[in-house]
From TrEMBL:
Superkingdom, taxonomy of origin: Bacteria
InterPro entries: ABC_Transporter_SBP, ABC_transptr_periplasmic_BD
PANTHER family the UniProt entry points to: HEMIN-BINDING PERIPLASMIC PROTEIN HMUT (PTHR30535:SF4), VITAMIN B12-BINDING PROTEIN (PTHR30535)
Protein's gene: hmuT_3
Record-linked Pfam families: Peripla_BP_2
Fe/B12 periplasmic-binding domain residues: 36-297
Species for this entry: Thermus aquaticus
Name the UniProt record assigns to this protein: Hemin-binding periplasmic protein HmuT
């Protein structure tokens, strides 16, 4: 059935006909042209780059910096605080946005202006990433390339599973920190963007182990005593490639230096989009995190494979 649907979609594109895409809300959106795209969401911009249509991006949200050429495009605001006037000024034919994008009145204003707005599924799961890839690929007429990306993702996950199966010993205890304030230690638990990558990489959340399932949702400030009580073997932190970062600053966060990870200097820093974006690279990101946790020692910096300054 999927092959028939893909064949019909490709035929429509070949005939230059509009494409109909079902978005994250279940809305059927008619995409009349994908020649001028506003990309809202770092993972969406990543996918567009890999689909070979980065040259169609006329504007992007603040969080998009991959592929590198999108940084030179106009910034239309944070994904949840979009500026309708800034978007319309670029004369877009299509807005591709993560499902949490908004505010809703801005999206409605764009629709009333005749712009096709596709809210892309953004579930932080492997199947969610596949849906994201396929939705973006369908909207821009690159279905075959989209399936290539899905197959590449599956190959990365197969390599990861092979490593997990042969590894011996208990799962490593990983504490996911968000170093936004040097005076407080923000710990990220369930529902935090990127938290699922720890389990996918074959490790366990240290805070979940101590505090219990659901005790920490999102990123919250914990006391130094609570951080020490989590007894993490590895500290995981995101870094922003356009901002200064130091491992020493992480060690100075309250409680971190007194943990097993702090004493051993076991800190893994990952590019923020690579860690939390759940784009086409999620399989490779989990594989890289697994290697950093189980096959390396000391401080490890993991950049995004597609980032170029």
């Amino acid at each position: 059935m999927r092959l028939i649907a893909l064949s019909l979609l490709l035929l429509g594109l070949a005939l230059g006909q509009p494409v109909r895409v079902t978005d994250a809300t279940g809305r059927e959106v008619e995409v009349r042209s994908s020649e001028r795209i506003v990309s809202v969401g770092g993972s969406i911009s990543e996918i567009l780059g890999r689909l070979g249509v980065a040259d169609r991006i006329v504007a992007r949200d603040t969080g998009s910096y991959i592929p590198p050429q999108v940084v030179r495009k106009p910034d239309v605001g944070l994904f949840f605080r979009l500026n309708a006037e800034a978007i319309l000024a670029q004369r877009p034919t299509l807005v591709l946005a993560v499902s949490e994008a908004g505010p809703p009145p801005v999206l409605e204003q764009l629709r009333r202006a005749g712009v096709s707005v596709v809210l892309v599924p953004d579930e932080p799961t492997v199947e969610g990433v596949k849906r994201k890839i396929r939705t973006v690929a369908a909207a821009v007429g690159q279905v075959a390339r989209g399936e290539d990306l899905v197959r590449a993702l599956e190959r990365d996950l197969l390599a990861l599973r092979s490593k997990i199966l042969v590894r011996r010993g208990p799962e490593a205890r990983v504490l996911y920190l968000y170093p936004r304030d040097p005076r407080n230690t923000f710990v990220c638990g369930e529902e935090a963007s990127g938290a699922g990558l720890i389990a996918l990489a074959g490790a366990q959340s240290a805070v979940k182990k101590v505090q219990g399932p659901g005790a920490v949702r999102g990123c919250v400030s914990l006391t130094a005593e609570a951080v020490v009580a989590a007894r993490p073997e590895v500290i995981l932190v995101p870094f922003f490639p356009d901002q200064p970062f130091s491992f020493e600053a992480v060690l100075r966060l309250p409680g971190v230096a007194e943990t097993p990870a702090g004493k051993a200097g076991r800190i893994v820093a990952m590019d923020v989009t690579y860690l939390s974006g759940y784009g086409y690279t999620v399989g490779k990101a989990a594989l890289d995190l697994h290697v950093a946790i189980y096959e390396k020692s000391g401080q490890v910096l993991i950049p995004h494979p597609d980032f170029r300054r």
